[in-house]
Design a protein that fits this description.
The chain is of the alpha/beta class. The protein contains 12 helices and 5 strands. The protein folds into 2 domains: about 170 residues, HAD superfamily/HAD-like (Rossmann fold, 3-Layer(aba) Sandwich), CATH 3.40.50; about 80 residues, DNA polymerase, domain 1 (Orthogonal Bundle), CATH 1.10.150.240. The protein is globular, with a radius of gyration of 18 Å. The two termini are about 15 Å apart.
Length: about 260
């Protein structure tokens, strides 16, 4: 007897979800950019807005109390939109220079996508990257075996990135899916969860290799059981607090939700 799917499409995030274990490409670029402007951000400050349109990410960091105060001390004034422009221009330059090296596909992604397609489920994707950045990531991911049926960046929605839901709706239109009740969104950041919730789709947070976890594969594998369980539970709690319908450890668990 043929199994009936709960969903017609699954819409994945990119870095930290399907590629770039730990979501390290943008982290590296953000740190270098803020250091260039004389401010050393903490890892928590860098990762908290992860998943947003990158220009919005920079504005969110600049608006954080500590960074805002540091900026005031260093430059004798509050930050301005032209400062955001300067930071973003340098960020884009740095990120474009390293992206190709951060498009390795995460464990279990290819197998899971293969299983989804066998069941007739379409694969969409959204991102905090721009089209220019995605040209590099999509091409490299394809070489590594991963190619969704559709992808949209905030460039396609008038720069309304996460947590706005419009990239999800673009995917639905392209994939020919009528009801939000038949769509699952999978991501590795709180911004992903909010995007899914705002779209009204079934929203899943993925823990291992996520930006929220923020560790390399080697670091994760070396963790003792107590530390690993504690870190996993902390990420799970953040996702659930943001409104996730489900939180899974890795891609293998998705099929059970189908």
């Amino acid at each position: 007897m043929k199994q009936e799917n709960r969903f017609d499409a699954v819409i994945f995030d990119w870095a930290g979800t399907t590629v770039d274990y730990g979501c390290f490409a943008p982290v590296q670029a953000f740190i270098e950019v803020f250091k260039h402007f004389g401010i050393e951000p903490t890892m928590e400050e860098v990762r908290k807005p992860m998943g947003m349109l990158k220009r919005d990410h920079i504005k969110t960091m600049l608006s954080m109390d500590r960074i805002s105060n540091e900026w005031q001390k260093k430059y004798g004034r509050n930050w301005r939109e032209e400062d955001v422009d300067e930071l973003y221009a340098l960020f884009e330059e740095k990120l474009l220079g390293i992206l190709e090296g951060f498009a390795d596909v995460k464990p279990y992604v290819l197998e899971t996508v293969g299983e989804l397609r066998k069941r007739g489920i379409k694969i969409g994707s959204t991102t905090g990257y721009t089209d220019k950045m995605m040209e590099i990531v999509v091409s490299k991911a394809k070489e590594n075996g991963y190619e969704p049926d559709a992808w949209f960046s905030p460039d396609s929605t008038g720069s309304f990135g996460r947590p706005y839901p419009y990239m999800i709706f673009k995917n639905m239109q392209r994939l020919g899916v009528m009801s939000v009740e038949r769509v699952m969104k999978v991501g590795d950041t709180v911004s992903d969860i909010r995007e899914g919730r705002n779209a009204g789709v079934y929203t899943v947070g993925i823990v291992e290799g996520s930006s929220e976890m923020g560790v390399t594969k080697e670091e994760y594998d070396k963790m003792g059981d107590i530390e690993r369980i504690a870190r996993v539970e902390a990420v799970k709690e953040r996702f659930l607090k943001a409104g996730a319908d489900e939180v899974v450890l890795d891609m293998r668990s998705l099929m059970a939700i189908m």
